[in-house]
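Appendix C reproduces, verbatim, an entry submitted by the partner laboratory led by Prof. M.T., so that reviewers can inspect both the input and the predicted structure.
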Amino acid sequence: MINKTKRTSVEPVATYQHNGRMLADYFEKHSINRSALARQIGVAPTTVLKYLESESLQFRILWKISIALKHNFVEELAAQLPLEVVVVKSEEQLEMEKELERLKIELSVYKNIVGK
């Protein structure tokens, strides 16, 4: 929330992954040729260099590079989010889970009868 009278942030600022540094680290680790990548994604080699220096990159850029290098940079960034994931289950999933529990109990009963 922003305090409108003082124009300062009153909530703590989260630290963000430097997108360009993430790419640069990957390029170095995997010996990625920047010029070859530039040709593959249809940009100038200097543009790739600018990507590596950029703190923030557009989603479409990460998408194109991910496809070109067959590495999911979007997933890598998502894994670093400091949030708990809330999973919303459909009615069908909930019903399937209930059925699974019922079947586990039934199997347990049969095992007791058979003696295993």
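The first strand starts at residue 2 and ends at 3. Additional entries are available on request from the coordinating office.
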